[in-house]
Write a structure and sequence with these properties.
Layout lengths: L5 H8 L3 E4 L1 H8 L6 H12 L4 E5 H13 L3 H12 L4 E4 L3 H6 L13 H12 L4 E3 L3 H6 L5 E2 L4
Parallel strand pairs: 1-2, 1-4, 2-3, 4-5
Helix pairs in contact: 2-3, 2-4, 4-5
């Protein structure tokens, strides 16, 4: 698959509130090609206040697991702190309100989701995001295309 263009990304998310899935964060933190550039642009737009973002605490924990698996606890803590303190972004904890969103939105095919993905999506729904940004096939199969943005064409 070929990545979307920078201009397409900017146009698709202009003035939106977005949920950033785990894989999009990992593209930036681990310099994953060919998506690192798109992730960097996305985070710059968030930092500049051009868009608002939501991170699920589940995604933050998943991103931390990479460094932890390799014995890099300080790196995991830096990533956690970076995301928790990122400007114009909310880190959504798993609360009863998040759980109440699981299964409640008929636009989502909940049966196609892993538990972690369901919690991430519910975090976005609770915060009324406009777009879910993810390259995860589970997301793309479970959420209507007008609600998702993938870095692949």
């Amino acid at each position: 698959m070929k990545p979307i263009s920078r201009s397409y990304l900017k146009k698709a998310i202009a003035d939106k509130k977005v949920l950033i899935d785990t894989n999009i964060i990992i593209y930036l933190t681990d310099s994953v090609q060919p998506y690192e550039d798109l992730s960097r642009i996305l985070f710059e737009l968030i930092e500049q206040g051009e868009i608002q973002a939501v991170f699920s605490i589940v995604s933050i924990a998943e991103v931390m697991q990479g460094p932890l698996r390799h014995g890099y606890k300080p790196n995991a803590m830096q990533v956690r702190d970076y995301l928790f303190n990122f400007p114009n972004a909310l880190s959504q904890e798993i609360t009863f309100d998040v759980l109440s969103k699981v299964g409640s939105d008929d636009r989502v095919d909940w049966s196609k989701l892993r538990t972690s993905d369901a919690l991430i999506i519910a975090s976005g729904l609770l915060n009324e995001v406009d777009i879910f940004i993810s390259n995860d096939q589970h997301f793309q199969k479970a959420i209507p295309s007008e609600m998702t943005l993938a870095f692949d064409k």
